[in-house]
Amino acid sequence: MSSVAVSSPEPPVISDLPVIIIGAGFSGTLLAINLVRQGQAVVLVERDQAGLAKGLAFGTARPEHLLNVRAANMSAFPDDPAHFLRWMGFSTNDQAHRFVPRLAYGQYLRSLLLDALGRAGRLLRICTGHAIDVLIGNAVQSVVLADGRHIHGRSVVLAQGNLPPRLPAPLAGLPPALAVADPWQPGAIDGLAPDAPVLLVGTGLSAVDVILSLDRAGHRGVIHALSRRGLRPRSHDVAVVPIRRVPCPAQLGSALVRSVRQRAREVGWRVAVDELRPHTRALWQAHDTAGQARILRHLRPWWDVHRHRLAPTVAARIAGLEREGRLRFLGGRLRSAEPAAGGLSVIWRPRGTGQDEVLEVARAIACVGPEGDIAQGPDRLLRRLLERGMARSDTHRLGLDVDSAWRVRDAAGTPHRALHAVGPLTRGAAWEIVAVPDIRHQVWDLARVLAATQAAPRHCHRSTV
């Protein structure tokens, strides 16, 4: 793998500053590839070489974890929608409509990065290191690494992806063997007796992945999956349903919800939700802060289960586990948990009741999704930017506050000229920015903005890459 030479804090006076991208998961890697295609120099900073190009979403090695989008819509490039199909060797409609393993998509992304490294010459360099600070200057920006090295560039892009999850408060402080904060950490399901009951806190896609992994590992105990409403992701239709183009709805708030419900009665929830997909960002941004809060509180749980769906084979297996009595989806509130003989004694209150119930389980695994509040997350760089007033959380604490050009806003709300963010960190501005189809358009657009900025007159400095 290529490396990058980084200099002391003072940059030499030479030409052609690169764009520095912090994070080489899906968002950062794809932005780097798009920039190289525009003839731009890039330094890609990543501290975990094992997850290079794959990130958390596509770094799984488990074949039972499938994409929840059909192969036909998984190209990395908006201008070449069949790119992934060609890479997979798919040539028929049946193949194009498959839901392939996520590990295959991770290999696809890594192959794109390796190809870019081979073709781009010195335009693309990878730096192994832990970024802990960003110093913004007039023409030269510097990324500070934990070992004291500095990388100099003309722009910096934050692409750290999803932040690791936190344990829900009732599980905080429990021994790691009893309460697992991150379902993706090695050993999350190891050491469980085959018949041990397990509690999953959360009923979304992460919970489904853990359920499938437990099943594949031979686990036969009861799995309790608990969330406030007990909702689980719906299944994609087995057949491909054409989605018509509709104009962006004029309704907002409760009127929009009524409109979607009416459309769902006509064509079903899957189609009604899919028709809105091209307009989700515009609809989100058309609401004021209070309206967005109502969306998050009342609509988001239902939107998520209809929008982020399961491959039909996965949905069938989940339904089978329910029929066998090995899987229970529960709606209610987790109240407390404490160590007990054989594991945990968990108190929860079923939704709509005032009566607590007790679950005895061997382990609780948090499947609540990534942390959104960057002030509470473990990322040292993001916390440092917050402390120095160089960045701030968005209103709903879903990630960083950014403007419409993905520029990071400082504590006063002023966007930085040369500090951007992409991917899940920008969820507060875009709401839907975690799936491949959304991110590929975001990085496509930002690459062109950064390339156009490069053409503008500027001082002549360069990092030693």
Please tell me about this protein's structure.
The protein is α/β, with parallel strands linked by helices. It folds into three domains: 19-65 and 101-164 and 372-454, 3-Layer(bba) Sandwich (FAD/NAD(P)-binding domain); 169-234 and 310-366, FAD/NAD(P)-binding domain (3-Layer(bba) Sandwich), CATH 3.50.50; 253-303, no CATH class. The protein is built from 13 helices and 16 strands. The longest helix has 19 residues, at 102-120. The radius of gyration is 23 Å and the shape is globular. 38% of the residues are buried. Mean pLDDT is 87; it is low at 1-15 and 456-465.
At a glance:
With 465 residues, the protein is an alpha/beta fold.
Low-confidence stretches: 1-15, 456-465
Helical amount:
25-40%
Strand content: 15-25%
The CATH architecture of the largest domain can be given as 3-Layer(bba) Sandwich
* Count of folded domains: 3
CATH evolutionary superfamily of the largest domain? FAD/NAD(P)-binding domain
Describe the sheet with the most strands.
Answer: 7 strands, mixed
Distance between the termini: 15 Å
Radius of gyration from CA coordinates: 23 Å
CATH topology heading of the largest domain: FAD/NAD(P)-binding domain
Look at the structure and give the mean pLDDT: 87
